[in-house]
Amino acid sequence: HAGNEVTLPAEIERIAITTITPLPSVYCLFDGSAEKLIGMSPSSMAAAENSLLADVIPGLTDIPTGFMSGNEVNMEELLAMEPDVVFYREGSKDEYEKLSAAGIPAVAFSVSQWGSDSIATFEAWVNLLGEVLGEEDKAAGIADYGREVYDRIQERLATAENLETPGILWLYKYADGTITTSGNSHFGEWWAEATGAVNAASEINGSDVEINMEQIYEWDPDMIYITNFVPYLAEDLQNNLIDGHDWSVVRAVQEGNVYKCPLGMYRWYPPSSDTPMMLLWLAKTNHPELFADIDMEAEMKNYYKRFYNVELTDEHMEKIFNPVREAAGA
Question: Do residues 147 and 156 lie in contact, with contact meaning Cβ atoms separated by under 8 Å?
Answer without folding.
Answer: no
